[in-house]
Amino acid sequence: MASNSSGDSSSRHQTARHRLSVIAGHLQRPADSNAAVLAVECKAQGTTPNIRTGVRSEGRTVPRRRQEIMKWNGWGYSDSRFLFNKKGQAEFTGKRYRLSGMIIPGLKDWLESTFGASLQHKAPATPILNSSAVQPPTVNEAFVEELRSTGVPFSHEAEDRVFRSHGHCLHEIFALREGKIGRIPDMVVWPNCHNDVVKIVELACKHNVCLIPYGGGTSVSSALECPPEETRSIVSLDTSQMNRILWIDEKNLTARVESGIVGQDLERLLNESGYCTGHEPDSMEFSSLGGWVATRASGMKKNIYGNIEDLVVHIKTVTPRGVIEKSCQGPRMSTGPDIHHFIMGSEGTLGVVTEVTIKIRPMPEYQKYGSVVFPNFEQGVACLREVAKQRCAPASIRLMDNEQFKFGHALKPQVSSIFTSFLDGLKKFYITKFKGFDPNHLCVATLLFEGDREKVLQHEKQVYDIAAKFGGLAAGEDNGQRGYIMTFVIAYLRDLGMDYYVIGESFETSVPWDRVLDICRNVKARIVRECKDKGVQFPPLSTCRVTQTYDAGACVYFYFAFNYRGLSDPVHVYEQVEHAAREEVLANGGSLSHHHGVGKLRKEWMRETVSTVGMGMLQSVKDYVDPNNIFGNRNLL
Amino acid sequence: MANTYRGLGKIGLQDEEEFVDILEDKRHCSDLSFAFRTFSPPPHKGAAPCSAAELNKAVLESQYLRYVIEEVAVETGSSVEEVRGEVRRTLGEMSQNLQLRFIRLMAFTFRKVFKRLFSAIYVNVEGLNALQQAAQEGPVILMPNHRSYVDFLVVSYIMFSYDIPLPVIAAGIPLAGMKMVGEILRGSGAFFIRRAIGSDKLYWAVLSEYVRTIVRKGFAPLEFFVEGLRSRTLKSLPPKLGMMHMILEPFFKGEVFDVTLLPISISYDRVLEESLLAHELLGVPKPRESTTGLLKASKVLQENYGCMHVNFGRPLSVRRLCEGKINRCQYNHMPRDLPQKPNAEAQACGSWLAHLMVRVQEEDSLTSPWSLMACVLLQVPTAALTEEGLLFHQLTEQTLWLRKLALDFGAHLSWPEKASDPDVMSSAVALHRSVVYRKAGRVYLLLADEPERKHPLSPEEDTMRTAAAVLMLASYRNQSLHVFVRPALLALAMSVTKSTQRDELLTCFCFLQDVFGNEFIFIPGRSSEDFEEACSLLKKCKALHVSQREVTVSDAGPEVLPFLQELLRPFVDSYQLMFRFLCEESDCVFTEKEFLPAVRAFATKLVVSGELPTYEALSSDVQKNVLSALLRLGAVTKTKTSENNQYKVNKTAVRRTGDMLAGRIPPQITQAAPDARL
Predict the structure, then answer these.
(1) Between A518, A521, A587, which is nearest B329 by CB?
(2) Which of the four, A24, B61, B137, B269, has the lowest number of CB atoms within 10 Å?
(3) Gap from B138 CA to chain A (nearest CA, Å)
(4) Angle between the A141-150 and A194-207 helix axes, to the nearest 10 degrees?
(5) Is A97 a catalytic residue?
(6) Mutate to test the interface with B, among A376, A377, A403, A521 (most CBs of B within 10 A)
(7) Do B333 and B202 sit in the same domain of this protein?
(8) Which residue from A512, A504, A529 is spatially nearest to A584, judged by alpha carbons?
């Protein structure tokens, strides 16, 4: 912190802020032991109208009425989207991202040549939610009555309910775009603190109401889908208003945070104090701490900071049986199977995570992006393997295959100066002509280094030296940085594709090193073959990247998309192909999921994944903790 | 399942597919300019080229061989370096060295030779196009049947002519020993495999890693003969499974996305080695492969051998064929390089595929008019055929009747379209003047000229002379047996059981398949489908009525059924003779070396005395098959003592099998039920 190069005054300012938040934590702690006092406190906060964003002093992102700033039938902020302007050029709207307001000249050609899509053939989405398409809520009057008396805010409004009825699986978004609404929650509640959750869960148990916890809503495993067979009243428990950092412990470098905070708020608030968690999943703008815990999330920079299971020190969870938490915050314990691991990955089937103590780190002094071009994917994977072997992986290292490299290229914004475009041309010439790389085989690794300056530079050299051994050429910081910026806008791109008959999704797996090349080749080929077999008229996009390295393997991410013109039931075809692709992943030694989770989408493979006994163990935990299936989202088991 | 391959087998030859004579369009250009044609196969989508040295290096340095070398070093007490040296030597002996200049040399020579030997070499262009496509996508395995030495490079020759990547070819080690020729073959892509590898663990490991590496790298198609060796009888042989597993493993373990199997059916009007093969079957040892031998054989090159058909079947995806048959997750728990035996599931799958390939080869092969004529001729008692002959017009008539039956059974005929039927048959007789001759409107079996002798032939010598002629004729009959075998077995079952009950017939049918399992190739576990097929074919030609419970003779039955039964007679007679020999004449324990001459002597005696109507019992092939069948049925057991296999006969069981075959007692299926997944 002191090592931060910022001026004296700002450092003092920061210290002051810490103290404040620490004090705030202290102030709240005694309240913990006194439910009544806390309840009042919660209520006071809850009644403060904080609906407009940016007004609230803490600057929290997510309002109760999410639809005010976010799309109800697509990804992200309402003001940010790709579109083709009047000149037929692709453009990204809004002001939030670095790409915002820019023209992307290559996107149209890429979309047309990759998918056979055409700007003439549009498949527009239903613009506004037709409330009459929404089933009236099944209200459990007794529950509502008692809930009202606690003062926890709730809503029966169609828009609120629809918003919380889905994640971002293709079939979910596709249905919304068509205006089709299935079983959705009957009401939404917004607890403000741990004790609110305790009360809600108690009431739910008492009145036999089904609870589905909702964090950021970025699930891609059908985890938020309401089971259609559920006859009880379904209540969506939205944690978004539980978004405070309760305290920061600078001596142990931990912070106690409420589970509803979304990634970008958590990082921003910690940054203000000179800290970070370093946990940056691609969804971090919208996904929540509780969601990370419930799905065993993984962040881009896990090589330095670790995955969620490495970051978490303490978890507090409200279950129908009561609250589960450990007695202390020791960094490691030998006290039987770790009860945190019952919660991590439980996907909302056991209870609601309310508070988490998470490790924090001083913000890195220096960050540097980088990129390396390899003549082919094989060489690239060999390099990543070597980097993992030497345990010198940078904060992030990702290897894109050739198709993704081309895709990334298509997303290059218009360059402003002739000089830059000249440079680009020169670079291309050097790589393809001078170095003899085949543009249809070469692939790119993007890198992110973090730490103090000297070490970063040293580290960088080490990695580039290894890359050189595998024929890799350093390709500049820009390419690297752009790769990471793309991470956040790529989800918006799917909405654009869907406007033009292109549907697609990503999925991931983890796999031992010796299988990486095989799984990439086979899964991609399987997708192509399945699409052909299922009557898809155009060749699909089937591409992958290696996004994480571990000692014993890697995480591989696949993207797949196709033009569905000419298909009567595109979503069904899509699901069949995705199913086949998952079978292929499993047949090639890949895991069912690295970090997306199981949800309901991948449930059918759970038994073979964890064995029948394993299923029994999980089931018995569920049976004990939640005998009446109050947390009835039916994920996982 | 039943339909998995029915659709597949028929593909090679969908209704009259177009065949092109590759000698025809090339006759206009000189041999030399053909040999120096620009060879430019379309590039492979994924695989990089791989030189012979790179291939050997990859094999030698493989993790798998590292494991095995260490294991062997520990087992034998030698150093790792020594074992590595051994591996290197083995690789040197084995490895191919495919180079275009050798192919050009080969193409030049072959063209010269082919033009002299054959009137035409017909190739189905559609099949070639499909192959060319497949060769760009991933590893392709070319699987020709093996009837002649000519098979060996003819595929490469065709690939060269059509700009398809040249294959590397699995060959028997004796070929490598030929001076010059061995090296030329290596240069043409041959790699050499020792015979009788047996339990040589290290050799087995080197070979399998070599083959797997070829498949994984996919830089060239791999050609191998699934039957393992040339068929001496021109019938299909039971497939060899070792090579098949090596090819499938990279797919099972996910090292390649798919493997494409491409069955190739090569059919000859007349086989170069015809008389050699017949004599080999009678116990005259095969001449060793040598360059001088090859040169001496050049007199064979003076004759005309008619046409040759090379039919490229449709590419078959292993991935699709194995769907639901193999759980690829089984390899998730161990390093894939670790030496481990394929489990039962993988073995069953490999065996099934190998048998399937043989079946597709059979279905795709072309049946010549001569082969049908041989079927007809062999129904005439041998003595009558040598002395009185068969009226030519009678032969014509019966052959035409058989042609119709064959077409009903779905055979593909290479029947010349332009010529009249008698002309077709006349020229077939003329082409096969080494087997039959025509005199005064009659066709006779030709007995080989014997050198002048002091004393007249003994009856035994005479028998051998006749047997050689009969076996030659029989081998041409064998070319078309696969067309008739299923209906024929049903016809036989009807005569054995004297029943019309479907289930009884099925039981007997299965029993017969079991007994003749080495004689004719059936896909394991498909007996009831085969039975259904037999029923429907016989129904189609109006020989049978088939109902839910019963199978009864219909209009054409009295003509068709006896013919089919007669077709299998030589086999039934030979088997019965062997059973009798084992029960009455032989000791309970014997070696193979003792068995073959003894049974031949016994058979000769019975032929001379007129008790045994067929000469085919003299064929060592049948004799060995009987032994294998009895082994399979558990009536004979094999023990290994030093060099020789020793057999122990359970005479009661043999007698029982004989009784069942004769219909004296109802048959029982002795084998365990086949794997349900197949």
Answers:
(1) A587
(2) B61
(3) 11
(4) 160
(5) no
(6) A521
(7) yes
(8) A529
Question: Which tops the pLDDT comparison, B153 or A306?
Answer: A306
Element housing B98 (H / E): none
Q: Which residue of B has its CA nearest to A524?
A: B257
Chain B: closest CA distance from residue A323 (Å): 38
Q: Of A525, A586, A589, which has the smallest distance from its Cβ to B257's Cβ? A: A525
Query: pLDDT (tens digit, 9 = 90+) per residue, B190-214?
Result: 999 998 777 889 999 999 999 999 9
Task: Please tell me which residue of chain B has the smallest CA distance to A528.
Answer: B257
Contact A521 B257 (CB under 8 A): yes
In a domain, B368, yes or no: no
Least confident of A92-101, A131-140, A470-479, B449-458: B449-458
Domain end among B361, B395, B426: B361
Q: How many domains does chain B have?
A: 2
B421 alpha carbon, distance to own chain's centre: 30
Cβ-in-10-Å burial (0-12, 13-18, 19+) of A279 comes to: buried
Length of chain B in terms of residues written? 678
Domain boundary among B361, B377, B400: B361
B-chain residues near A608 (CB < 8 A): 329
What is chain B's Cα-based Rg? 25
> Which residue does chain A place closest to B329, by CA atoms?
A587
ipTM value, please give it: 0.88
Report the percent of chain B where pLDDT is more than 90. Answer: 66
pLDDT at B10 over 90: no
Chain B residues near residue A515 by CB distance under 8 angstroms: 254
Spatial distance between the Cα atoms of B392 and B376, rounded to a whole number of angstroms = 11
Identify all chain B residues contacting A522, using CB atoms and an 8 Å cutoff: 254, 257
**Cα distances (angstroms) measured from residue A478 to each of A398, A437, A441, A492, B94:** 15, 20, 21, 21, 52
In B270-303, which positions are buried (b, 16+ CB within 10 angstroms) versus exposed (e)?
Answer: bbbbbbbbbbbbbeeeeeebeeeebeeeeeeeee
Catalytic site residue from A77, A97, A557, A559 = A557
Minimal CA separation from A315 to chain B, in Å:
33
Whole-angstrom Cα distance, residue A140 to residue B594?
Answer: 92
**Cα A92–Cα A96–Cα A97 angle in degrees, nearest 5:** 60
Any idea what the CATH number is for the domain that residue B189 is in? Answer: 3.40.1130
- Give the structural domain span for B257: 26-286+304-361
Helical pair B557-580 and B527-540, crossing angle rounded to 10 deg: 140
Q: Give the tens place of pLDDT for each residue, B621-670.
A: 999 999 999 999 999 998 876 667 888 999 999 999 999 999 999 887 65
Tell me whether residue B404 is in a domain: no
Which residues in chain B have their CB less than 8 angstroms from residue A525's CB? 257-258
Q: Is residue B676 part of a domain?
A: no
Task: Report in angstroms the alpha-carbon separations of B426 from B81, B392, B474.
Answer: 66, 9, 19
Do B497 and B351 share a domain, yes or no? no
B100-130 b/e (C-beta count within 10 Å ≥ 16 → b): eebbbebbbebbeebeebbebbbbbebbbeb
Q: Which residues of A touch B331 (CB under 8 A)?
A: 589
* Residues of chain B contacting residue A532, judged by C-beta atoms under 8 Å apart: none
Cβ distance A521 to B329 less than 8 Å, yes or no, reads no
Please, what's the largest Cα pairwise distance for chain B? 76
Which of B255, B328, B335 lies closest to A587 in CB terms?
A: B328
Residue type, B236: S
Contact state of B328 with A522 under an 8 Å Cβ cutoff: no
C-alpha span between B207 and B193 (Å, rounded): 8
Query: And the tokens for B356?
Result: 């399937």
A589 with B258: Cβ contact below 8 A: no
User: What tens digit of pLDDT does each residue of B435-452 get?
Assistant: 999 999 999 999 877 666
Q: Does some domain include residue B419?
A: no
